[in-house]
Amino acid sequence: MTALECWWHPPPTDLTLSSDEVHVWRADLDLPAWQIERLAQTLSEDEQHRANRFYFERDKTHFIAGRANLRTILSRYLDLEPAQLQFSYGSRGKPSLDSTSTSRALCFNLSHSNGLALYAVTSDRSIGIDLEYIRPLPNALELAKRFFSPREYAVMSSLPPDQLQEAFFNGWTRKEAYLKATGLGLAGLEQVEVSLIPSEPVALLSIQGDPKAAECWSMHQLKLAPGFVAALAVEGHGWHLDCLAVV
After folding, report:
1. 90 domain-assigned
2. Helices (H) and strands (E) in the chain, counts
3. Does 55 map to a domain?
4. Range(s) of the domain holding residue 143
5. What distance in Å separates the CA atoms of residue 1 and residue 145, rounded to the nearest whole number?
6. How far apart are the first and last CA of the chain?
7. Angle CA 24–27–28, to nearest 5
8. What pLDDT does residue 128 have?
9. pLDDT digits (tens, 9 = 90+) for 186-210
10. 191 and 141 within one domain
11. Residues in the chain with pLDDT < 50?
12. Residue 52 included in any domain
């Protein structure tokens, strides 16, 4: 499995999604106030309440832009107005389309960090995406000991200090992408083993100690702007990626 180059382009007017396609959308969340006000009008009452609970204005506007973009993106596939979409949530908070609002099966996942958001969309296969802004992390090894498997911790302990931070974010995003695809949440971090070393191929190594279970998934790193790392986990193989930009 590899790191995938993303060539971001505007979506076509006749947007379609076949069974062997995965679309990843990119969106900036730092938007002018007038645009945030317009996007907020597409949110549900529950989403508006959630937005108002944020203490910092930047967090509030990022939430509004992130959720409104999700609605706009999904509505393009479903030929509905963004405000018409209804969501349901798993036990650990994973959103999915409520079957009462559409008859079409779309699988999606989203992640955002430091003003940038990614949305992964496919049909009839589980999918997860995670995005992190690489920030100083002096306790990367301590965090790996707490959240990673003993084998992963041993790998990180063998790395030179200048590779620890990148290795940690590689591991974190790859684990999170898989766990978000399955809806398991952070509780299973140490049960998912992935490759960490920056120079090695991207790989999902085992799930709960079972390498065979990992073979049912595709795991890729997405090449983004400098300072960001992102991972994509997709159930199955034989699909191809298209990278789209929210405009």
Report:
1. yes
2. 7, 12
3. yes
4. 131-243
5. 26
6. 30
7. 155
8. 96
9. 667 889 999 999 888 999 999 999 9
10. yes
11. none
12. yes
- The distance between the two most distant Cα atoms of the chain, rounded to a whole number of Å, is 53
Look up residue 209 and give its two tokens. Answer: 């100690």
Q: What is the pLDDT of residue 187?
A: 66
Of 204, 146, 199, which Cα lies nearest the Cα of 171? 204
Q: Which amino acid is at 227?
A: G
Total count of domains within the chain: 2
CATH number of the structural domain spanning residue 105: 3.90.470.20
For residue 51, give the amino acid letter. Answer: A
Is residue 154 in a domain?
yes
The verdict on 152 and 209 lying in the same domain is yes
- Do 75 and 138 reside in the same domain of the chain? no
Tokens coding 210: 């079972």
Query: Mapping DSSP to helix (H, G, I), strand (E, B) and coil, where does residue 136 land?
Result: coil
As a whole number of angstroms, the distance between CA 114 and CA 23 comes to: 22
Chain centroid to CA 185 = 12
Look up residue 145 and give its two tokens. Answer: 């000991």
Helix (H, G, I), strand (E, B) or coil at 133: strand
Both tokens assigned to 37: 């006000």
Separation between Cα atoms, residue 100 and residue 219, nearest integer Å: 32
Considering the domain architecture, whether residues 156 and 222 belong to the same structural domain is answered as yes
Token duo for residue 73: 């993106």
CA distance 245 to 247: 6
Yes or no: say if 67 and 49 are a contact pair by the CB < 8 Å rule. Answer: no
